Amino acid sequence: MVRRYAEPVQVQLRLHLGSDGSDGSVGFDPELEGGAVARPESFRWRGRDYAVRAVLGHWRERRAWWREALDPPPGVPHGVAAAARERLVWRVEAGPGRALQTGVFDLCCDEIEPEPLSVPGATLGARWQLLRVTD
């Protein structure tokens, strides 16, 4: 069953090098310098911490422009066309603490004003949302 949400979450990121990197990761994003990828490592939702056990995929998707066309959210420059806005979605398998029970979560991050991703362990809270939970 898939449940839809649009709730803010705090996401802890970890910088992974490209497939030739020393950390052994196989992720590669050509849009980041040197092929580095900042992946979710953990997140906090509704006062509970979830550890990401696996990244199942990530992609870009267009936002629902019709919801924001008349009233753009705070902090969005008026020169940015709502239809052109995209967000990066990460599908992760995660669970609370060290418990064996896990679920599949879709986390998204707006890409209007990208945060610097060069610092391992960076926390980006206000711009991240939980979109879907599959159990």
CA-based shape: globular
Q: For the report, how would you describe the main beta sheet?
A: 8 strands, antiparallel
Strand content: over 45%
How widely separated are the two ends? 6 Å
Give an overview of the whole structure.
With 135 residues, the chain is an all-beta fold. It has one domain. The protein has one helix and eight strands; from the N terminus they run ββββαββββ. Strands 1-8-6-5-4-3-2-7 form an eight-stranded antiparallel sheet, with no helix packed on it.
Topology of this protein?
Blueprint: E1 2-8, E2 10-16, E3 37-45, E4 48-62, H1 65-68, E5 86-96, E6 103-110, E7 123-124, E8 128-134
Antiparallel strand pairs: 1-8, 2-3, 2-7, 3-4, 4-5, 5-6, 6-8
Key terms:
single chain, 135 residues, mainly beta, eight-stranded antiparallel beta sheet
Concise account of the structure shown:
The protein has 1 helix and 8 strands, in the order ββββαββββ. It has 135 residues and is an all-beta fold. It has an 8-stranded antiparallel beta sheet with strand order 1-8-6-5-4-3-2-7, with no helix packed on it.
